[in-house]
Amino acid sequence: MTGLAKGKNRNPKVREFHHLHVKNINITYIDVGDRNGYILVENFQNSCFVSLSIISFLFFTRKNSKLISCTFFLNWVVDFNPKRFNLNLTSLWVSPNSGFPKFMAPTPSFKPNHSSQSKTPQSKQRLNFNGIKSAPQTPNPNSVAPAEHPIEVIARIRDYPDKKEKPLSSILQASSNSSCIRVRADFGYRDFTLDGVSVSEEEDLDVFYKKFVESRINGVKLGDKCTIMMYGPTGSGKSHTMFGSSKQAGIVYRSLRDILGDGDGGEDHHLGLGTFVQVTVLEIYNEEIYDLLSTNGGGGGGGFGFGWPKGSSASKVKLEVMGKKAKNATYISGNEAGKISKEIQKVEKRRIVKSTLCNDRSSRSHCMVILDVPTVGGRLMLVDMAGSENIEQAGQTGFEAKMQTAKINQGNTALKRVVESIANGDSHVPFRDSKLTMLLQDSFEDDKSKILMILCASPDPKEIHKTISTLEYGAKAKCIVRGPHTPVKDDESSAVILGSRIAAMDEFILKLQMENKQREKERNEAHKKLSKKEEEITALRAKLDMVEGKGTTPTSEEEINLKVNERTRLLRQELEKKLEECQRMTNEFVELERKRMEERILQQQEEVETLRKRLEEIESQLCCSRLGCGSEENDSKDMESSGFARRLLRIYKSEEDPGMVKSMDLDMDDQEPLGREVSIVGGVVCKSDYNAKQNFSFSNQQCPNTLNGVQEDAANVFAPNFGQRVCLSTVYEEEGEGEQDHEDKGDEDEEVEKEVIEEKRVCTVDKPSAAGSFETSKVSKTSPKKEDYCFKASSVDDKDGESNRLLRIQNIFTLCGNQRELSQHIGTPIPTKKRSDEAFDKFSPAKTNGKDSVFKVSNKENLEPQNVVGN
Ligand SMILES: Nc1ncnc2c1ncn2[C@@H]1O[C@H](COP(=O)(O)OP(=O)(O)OP(=O)(O)O)[C@@H](O)[C@H]1O
To answer: Which positions does UniProt annotate for ATP binding (predicted)?
Structure first.
């Protein structure tokens, strides 16, 4: 067997865990199911009990009822010396829960060596198993006194705070034998086994006192020491239990009465005449001890009699701790319970109380009432602890308030640690962690002292967590075990103490394990329930999605129809919207166009009007100049009454002037943009086209001199007004050489007709100067040179004069694009282009007569400056 040591243990009250690994032990009888056993580990020099805790058993391996190996914890090792830890396992002892070691089976190799039982120098607390060892075959359980639990734990369940809100079933239920309390919650329940349970509703303070406290007080009367502590969260009824209420007296006053008797004269049938008590009332607040019976002006302690100052408003006296007691604490002494009770009542009101979220009048301090019975040496300590709530629960805000709560909790926490340490058998018990535990040290350490812990709990479901933690604390305190008071042999006593403690611990661990299993079970169930609920939620969510239309697969035809209808409705709406939009846009566009057209029409009308006026002016001027301005009025009337087209027709039909064809048209629809210039040469208003690169040529040698001035004037007046849109052209033609001669200018019958032709391709203009202005060629009145003409009209002779005239007119109309008008006159349609080309052919320079006054006609593309007359 080998082992690992973790240190030495010199204190019999201290337990340390040591880990041992045991191999190849041959044990015939072992009840592995008994988890509260002991193993006796022995060698020739040493022997000890070791506990088989639950954990140890987890590592046991068995084969055919034989323990092959085990790994366990040594809960207690006396005088442990690692160097000498080559122990031979000689026998195994399994103790029952009572803590009595029981011999199970000796190993065959067991050879006790009695000589090895001498104590080592450090073996002050060594366990000696003489008694046990000497009776391996006949173990005597009665040889060891049973262990004692120095702390008794009782639960006191207060009334439901608000009876109106009281639920049908309480969360706290006491078992029928009043030793177990069950805490019920939604998720399960938990049982706590205590020394007693009292429900306030069923047992008032009187019954409670008689049932659980009275016996203790009787012990005090006989000289015992007892500490009664009220522990629990705030508002759970600690102060109520301790001091009672106006209706019923609390433990303090009942105890006094019990000790001193009811009679006023101290006729105590228990203690006899002359029995008296000394009472000290202390308050521990903010980790300071205050003497509630004393003020600054009062007796400084140690007084005897009723010498304490009165009045709760007097300032409190702070006390120091000396040893395990408050130094110079004031006490009152007497044998009249009533008087003393009244004084206690008074000072009790000096306690610091505060309203918190949990309690309207919450005690913010621990209060200790110490009753000494000097005649018998008995002592009763009654402790009302401040609420064990945490800071958040108390609803404390601000640094000071939080500090206060923290300090209150310091006492509670320290007490908890003390209880745990004692219960665990720790080598160090932290009594000095707080003033409260310092004053309570004797209560825990003194063998004669007993502790009654009253766990106050509320049945309010809101307080369930605090209730559980309070009960857990009490259960822990219950584990504290102590050896018998009767002095026994050191070794035996220690062994029994050890056994008792271990048994209690094992019991506690077992309980915890059971609880753990139970909780695990509950947790699993809760988990299952949760999973089920989650599944339900998922199903419901899917259903909801389906209803809202989020589902991916519609199930019924109705749903499909619904969806289709909905979709159709949406699409229709969209379409209508778009149609409206289109309609609106169309209306806007039409309106815009209409406005534009109107503007254009107006503008063109204005232009036409202007043109008409100008034309009339020009014509009148021409007539004037021709007639010598004699019959201006008549001429103007003529002009007004006749349009150009009519006049042209008239000319065409006229007999008296067969050689002259006048053509004039006013094109209102010319959309040619820029590039129009108007020049008037020799009485001819002529439009030139910049689109033809200003290749203009114009010759008017044949124009009469008299017209020169007029035409210039006309040009001056006219040109600026028709910069862009003027579409006025004049073709001036003469028929017959004789008639065209400038020499005949005096002849009044000779009439020079203007023909205005709107044309794009044909024009006869002067070549523009380099600066872009038109220069009118010098008019040669007498001898127009042949080469000056680039284009000559077809020679007109008598026989084909008529047809020529017709052709010319056709040509002009073709050029003007006025075919319809022409067709009306000639009765036959003329293909535009062809006729136009033919006209050009006829007017080709080769066919022209040099004497004729001709216009050079060329296509846009063929307009060449070198061909312009006058170059
Ligand atoms: N068993 C009971 N029956 C009736 N009323 C009770 C009972 N226990 C407590 N109360 C009432 O509940 C209130 C709070 O009780 P108490 O002051 O005793 O609580 P506490 O635990 O001392 O709180 P704190 O720690 O804050 O001082 C008091 O008004 C008290 O009268």
So the answer is: 232-239
